[in-house]
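Students often ask why we bother encoding 3D structure as a string. The short answer is that it lets us treat folding as translation between two languages. Here is a chain of 124 residues written in the first language.
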Amino acid sequence: MEKPEVQEVIEQEKTQETCTRMLLPVRDALEVLSGKWKLQIIIALTFGTRRFREIAREVTGITDKMLSKELRDLEENMLVKRTVKDSFPPSVEYNLTEHGKTLQKVIGELREWGVMHREKIMGE
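And here it is in the second language, the structure alphabet:
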């Protein structure tokens, strides 16, 4: 059975319970992905495994301390996997988990909306 579209649910059941049922998962998602950096880090990792320094170069403006914190948060939420390589000196690599890859559709939709919004607001 297919899930009904959000708009269909809204039209069918305009109740406080339905509103709450729709808001809770969105709040959960925003809590996990909140802030200026998390989505940018995830986008950098959609292009493949990266070392800390590579992510820092691609996500311009982020400090090492903030990158470290955000990577830990993403790892705790099972979106990013941290792998320590047995080498000298040890190297650490980060990549998206299968769960993290499920965000690609959402990121694509956000990108499309951002392009449309930029065109509407700036006329570009």
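Translate back mentally: Helices lie at 6-12, 16-33, 38-46, 52-58, 64-76, 98-101, 104-122. Keep this in mind for the problem set.
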